[in-house]
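Moderator note: this is an archived Q&A kept for reference. The question asked for a predicted structure of one protein chain; the sequence and the answer are reproduced below.
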Amino acid sequence: MRIGLRLLLGFFLVLGLALFVVLRIFLEEVKPGTRLAMEDSLVDTAYALAQLATPEMVAGTLPNGNFAQAMLAYNAVRPEANIWGFRKEQVDSRVTIVNAQGIVVFDSQQLALGQDHSRWNDVVRTLRGEYGARSSAVSPDDPDNTVMHVAAPIRDGSRIIGALTVSRANQSLEPYIARSQQRILRWSWGLLGGALLLGLVFSWWMASSLSRLQRYAQAVARGERVSLPAMGRLSGNTEFSDLARALERMREKLEDKAYVENYVHTLTHELKSPLAAMRGAAELLQEPMAEADRQRFAGNIERQTLRLQALVDKLLNLAEVEQMRQLSNSEPVDLVALTEEVVQALEPRWRLKVLQFSCALGNEPVRVRGDRFLLAQAMRNLIDNAIDFSPQGGHITCTLTQDAGGWVTWSLRDEGTGVPDYALDRVFERFYSLPRSDTQEKSSGLGLCLVKEVSDLHGAQVRVDNVDHPRGCLATWRFPA
């Protein structure tokens, strides 16, 4: 499982669990909290009404007194109130009064007159001078339909002569409780969705930053020329940016060390052959010999010296290109004009071998972005290679095309012996060289390696293939236009 998905699942699991616990507790507290608020208001109402009913209860005129008439009229009131979108069409409270024996002497709904309520918790506790309240089902067949009863004592001095109970059905609060729960759930789902979106963004940021660093490390491990990835604005000066810079410093140190070790090894190997030839010729020149032999050995020393000079020059050029991470000087380069310039500069070489050089470049400029000097060096190496491997009096053809996909293809074809199959995959390796057809001598093996490095810097593709009819070699160089 990828780290981004792990982070998202972990974040969502922790958030979901926390939200579930909080939401569960909150929803479980909504209904009890609302009923506690209703009980508190019923206590105030009961005590207020008990004070109003006390004079008539003491005088024994309660059933026909003003209090009873007012309560009966109260029961018929139609409030027509709009409470946060809910219409209240009638009063929901019921008032009952019992005497000291618990017998109902007044009922605002005229349903329980004369009944014995002395066993009900609200009545019996209030008559004992305690706080009396209960919540009972209306019917045993409907246990969820309950009514809350709160009682207040009616006193004659210090003596309790009765109790007034205010009742209200708990179902009257259900619309308000349901609305509160719905709003809580809606906001909770919104919070969960927002948190999930935030978790997605956070996980994407973490995963994308790590993926960029991973791709960078893998590209470095493959030996590709890549730049340090940009970590983006969100990363800022975080640990990801520090890690990226640390990886870059580590890469530079490792590459420098490996680069020096590799060059020392390969250069030592390549220098052995010409130095041995020069030493052998120098030792022989110290002895008496014929003038023809002396000229031959002196010429050999000169050729080997030139070979060493060419090797050092190309090695320095290659080292400079290999150390580039990206082009420092990029501009539009006309490949038509550049090809004509390089072919003209090499004309003495291909005329010396009596070669025919034909170019099919078109009449319009074909431009690519790049470093003109590096492109000229790479192109010169490709043409040098074609001249070296072409037979005396052969034909070299250079073409330039542009396809509909936007790629520019520069190709060079010679009529040499081609590249052996075993060497096709190695022609761009450093110091790998094949013997020339006419002299059987090898070059420095750095020319095509330089071509490959320049191509990579320009985002181009280069390859060498064998062709038939007539037999020869085809070098193809493709650029993004």
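Archived answer notes: The two ends are 40 Å apart (CA to CA).
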